Amino acid sequence: MIKTEVVIVGAGPAGLGCAALLKQMGIEDEELIVLERGEVGESFLRWPDSMRFITPSFPCNGYHQTDLNAITPDTSPAFNAGKEHLSGKEYAKYLNMVVNHYKIPVTTQTELLEVSSIGPNDGFYLQTSDSEIQCKFLIWAGGEFQSPSMNAFSGAELCQHNTHIRDWQALEQGHYVVIGGYESGVDATFNLANSANKVTLLDCKPNDADTYDPSQVLSPYTMERMKSIADNKDIDFDGEFEVSSVYKEGNEYVVQSTDGNEVRTLFPPINCTGFEMDLGPVSDLFVYQDNGYPWVSAFDESTKRRNLFLAGPRLYHDPTLLCFIYKFRGRFAAPCRVIGSELELDMSVMKHYRQAGMVLEDMDCCKQQECFC
Ligand SMILES: Cc1cc2nc3c(=O)[nH]c(=O)nc-3n(C[C@H](O)[C@H](O)[C@H](O)COP(=O)(O)OP(=O)(O)OC[C@H]3O[C@@H](n4cnc5c(N)ncnc54)[C@H](O)[C@@H]3O)c2cc1C
């Protein structure tokens, strides 16, 4: 049985961002373990080669405007990659550099399998794929990439989820149907069309919300890509096609809408409907809001179990969904402050985080902010 104070599950931007902050507060190596079932930045390593960040990176940290994809105030993915729109592999390399710089103790190839409570305030027993750990604080930063949405419509299992495609150019050429017209659907369409395929892109949500927030409308990067393929005669876009089911008839896949229309293709339709709400082995230790997101306290702590915290894109503080790195990194401070004060760590680094725009406390800032032109 390994005993430690803090276990963070997931070596993605959320888990490593929290770990880097705790390290800067002076947590000792034996007090912290980051568990990762794959490699550092595993989700990013699985992105298709052609996939790029939609949020641009720029090394403007010195001016209190931290690179949008940085997870600490003093690092910048743009600086090490020399690029604005990084690939998944380039971002995973950045995360590895963060691990090395802050000397974060990450145990890779180790999956958290089960969590049990020692007592209401006494921490957790963790069963991993190769050890047992006892800890006082647990931060779940397991992300969403591992849980593709397979229930958005009936027959979804016949489709190929976009996260399972490693290389768009390696696919056989022909006519593809892409379901879901948000960021990943447009990315799929763009890549398929650029490999000389015919594409039908189906979506049912209007993209005319009166906001600039990329959580609700397409990002400028994606809009720009959409425009660049607007005149491509091989792309059909149906913005009023709500998919009800997919089934197979002979060698064809039939995609049917709720109002009886259909599109046929010889290839499994590409499912770009996002991810399930799956918190893995800590799922039962949270209570859920009506929209499916977990309830968390002002410290991003489970409302059901003390000392269990959530970090990353599943944080939803009504009305704000913190689904991008530049959003959820503002919450690294929430669990780390609680843990730092209980472990009597040096919290002076928080001033630096605040100055760098990496402390987000007032969620109404996002509700009321306007972009006049
Ligand atoms: C195609 C795509 C493009 C995106 N583009 C952008 C963008 O441009 N800008 C932006 O800000 N965001 C973007 N995002 C969102 C961003 O990638 C995620 O919000 C981010 O990865 C979440 O970080 P995370 O650390 O919570 O999760 P992840 O990066 O997924 O990390 C979670 C880690 O936890 C590990 N893990 C899970 N379960 C366990 C377990 N039981 N035991 C041990 N380890 C476990 C996983 O292996 C993984 O490495 C994009 C997402 C996708 C899918």
CATH architecture of the largest domain: 3-Layer(bba) Sandwich
Morphology = globular
Largest sheet: 5 strands, parallel
Indicate how many domains the architecture comprises. 2
Rg over C-alpha atoms, rounded to the nearest angstrom: 22 Å
CATH topology of the largest domain: FAD/NAD(P)-binding domain
* Separation, N- and C-terminal Cα atoms: 58 Å
Neighbour order of strands in the largest sheet: 4-3-2-8-17
Strand content: 15-25%
Q: What is the H/E order?
A: EEHEHHHEEEEEEEHEHEEEEEEEEHHHH
What is the number of E strands? 19
Supply the helix-strand structural class: alpha/beta
Ions, cofactors and other ligands present here are: flavin-adenine dinucleotide
Walkthrough of the structure:
- The protein has 10 helices and 19 strands.
- With 373 residues, it is α/β, with parallel strands linked by helices.
- Helix 6 (220-228) links the parallel strand 11 and strand 12 (235-238).
- Helix 1 runs parallel beside helix 4.
- It is globular, with a radius of gyration of 22 Å.
- The model has no long low-confidence stretch (mean pLDDT 94).
- It binds flavin-adenine dinucleotide.
- Flavin-adenine dinucleotide (FAD) is lined by residues 9-15, 35-38, 42-43, 47, 51, 53-55, 111-112, 141-143, 145-146, 184, 280-281, 312-313, 323-326.
Q: What's this, in brief?
A:
The chain is α/β, with parallel strands linked by helices. The chain is built from 10 helices and 19 strands. The longest helix has 15 residues, at 88-102.
Task: Pick out its properties.
five-stranded parallel β-sheet, globular, alpha/beta, 2 domains, FAD/NAD(P)-binding domain, 373 residues, binds flavin-adenine dinucleotide, 19 strands
